[in-house]
Amino acid sequence: MTDSKIPDTYHPFVDLIGLRIDKHSNGHSECSMDVREDLFNPHRVVHGGVLFSIADTGMGAALYPSLKQDEICATIEIKITYFQAVRSGTIRCVTDVINRGKSVAHLEASIFCGDALVAKANGNYSIFTPRRQQ
Length: 134
Fold this sequence. Notes:
The chain is an alpha+beta fold and 134 residues long. It has helices spanning 12-17, 48-63, and strands at 20-25, 28-34, 72-82, 90-100, 104-113, 116-128. The chain has a single domain (12-128), classed as Thiol Ester Dehydrase, Chain A (Roll), CATH 3.10.129. The N and C termini lie far apart (38 Å).
């Protein structure tokens, strides 16, 4: 189930980390990626910034389908809690919009490796119409 509202545009960071947006609809998304050693920190586990990026991208993917034609969204803040280190396998992020107002939305993402919950994130996003570039 995919909504075409997510821009099919240049997204080099998602490509760099190998993230896949598997499902996205109004208020929900599911993303996944395979663990690779080039995403490890010095302790040979997936860098926390990678997990944060998965949550951030999953949140945007869940929110985008609700936006009007001329609107975009931008991260205001995200809080993430890490529960377990990730060393191998496939990481999966499931995100839901918890509350969507006119100008701010609150989302929640759960990040899994296999059946284990490895991180949980809450985020707030600004919803706005960008100023025209001059």
